[in-house]
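step: validate -> pass
step: tokenize input -> pass
step: predict -> running
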Amino acid sequence: MKYLCLALTCLVFLIACSEGENLQTSEIRFRNNMKTLASDEFEGRKPATRGGKKTTQYIEAQFKLAGLQPGNGKSFQQAVDLVEINTEFSDISVAQAERSMPITHGNELVSYSRRPISNISVDRSNIVFVGYGVVAPEYDWNDYQGIDVKGKTVIMLSNDPGYLSPTKEHFLGKGITYYAKDSYKYEEAERQGAKAAFIIHDPRLMSSDWPSHVQEHNKKRSILAATRAGDLAVQGYISAKYTSELMAISGWDYARETQHALNSTYIPKFLDASISIKLKSSLKHSTSHNIVGLIPGKESPDETIIYLAHWDHLGKDDNLKGDKIYNGARDNAAGIASIIELAHLFKATNNLKRSVVIMAVSAEESGLLGSYHYVQNPLFPLAKTVGAINLDMMNLNGETSDVLVHGINNSPLMDAAIKEAIENKQGRTATPFGRLEAGIAYRNDGFSFNRSGIPTIGLASGSNHIVKGQEWMDAQADDYFQNRYHQVKDEYSENFDVSGALLDIKSLYLIGIELSKSKKFAQWYDGKEFKYLRDDQLEIFDTNN
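step: predict -> pass
step: emit ->
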């Protein structure tokens, strides 16, 4: 009987361990990895630099120590080819009837191209005001209805129609949607066949003034080298003041038109004006890498759950006085240290049914390029990807009784996994991340997966510290974003209370266990903007099976 009891005790222990209830993260390992990646030795982890190469080598070594298998055949690396574009010359002219309107790059307009071409020109392209430039079937909205803008230049308002709606009847009110993103607006303009597209800088819709906006966007920018040379040759921003003058000469009142553009029945306005642009840019090619590890599942190894975090930061700036290195401790050395912990947890799991992919992606700070490259060139079929979980800026302020989740209420399967893992097993509450006006859901690598059809979630720091409460946690968040975010002061400190991050890592692990147990794939709720993409993926999966 004694041996039977011992055997039963061991069995119960193994079952508990298989679900992570008794598995332990390592604070020493977590701190060491975060401290190392955020050290000056890694020079701010900018892609395609000495520091960037050292970073990917370090992460690959840690993946191997955790026992991961290579995720790209026999290699842990997935090459990400980049092109840095620097606009060196911009000549712009606007003609209206028989007269020309003075306009200069950097004063009334900022123009650039995201095409890997040195010389680009737009010749006498007619200008069209298209409201917000949004086509959103789920909101019954189409700003391009009934018009053909092929070869033309579109100008459009920033944000989406909900932002200025007095009754919040449009979209999410001031909460940012996919359609508020500048990148969406340019992509939609290209889908419509436009030759050039400019977003109007209206102080009512943007947080910065025009000079600050020019300074922010008149810079070098990186793209994926595989970016095709499409119809949209030039994009950028145009001041509201100049737009108002341009529309007035054509007989349209800017204030009245922007008010009318809040209606779904708004008809775009063709201006009696054309624009010509010549751009000359220098191109610098480089290669960075995503680092991808794999833990094969035992029952359905071809079905994958993906965890990702970006390894890159802003590098160093020799023009700064004193400290020149953007160490990026919280953003996102902490995220990489977390996926390394997850690698150890999943590797120790006994009954993992589906495969788990652990991925450190490059070039997030350049526009989510590493993650977008992956979904354009997936190492594991998107149709067999169960769902994705993104880690960015972990909680370094201590344990919380709650968890704020990006992507909650988007997918039934993901919501069920969150509820079981966080609420039922950990006894914490899981709530949507607030501050919708910040648009965080569209500014992290999870968005690359979302826009490719894969429902993705991410954990933000909880808001209710178990000892110090919510006000204290809110103050810590405000202090970080005001004083350290994207600054050289984002450095590692032994004073970090990493217990919150380690608790959240266990939450993330338990969510993965729930997804591994399921036979389902994450799907979107009806009315979500990317549901049609997932429908197509899962239809392909069903057809092939």
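step: describe -> The CA atoms of residues 36 and 512 lie 27 Å apart.
step: cleanup -> pass
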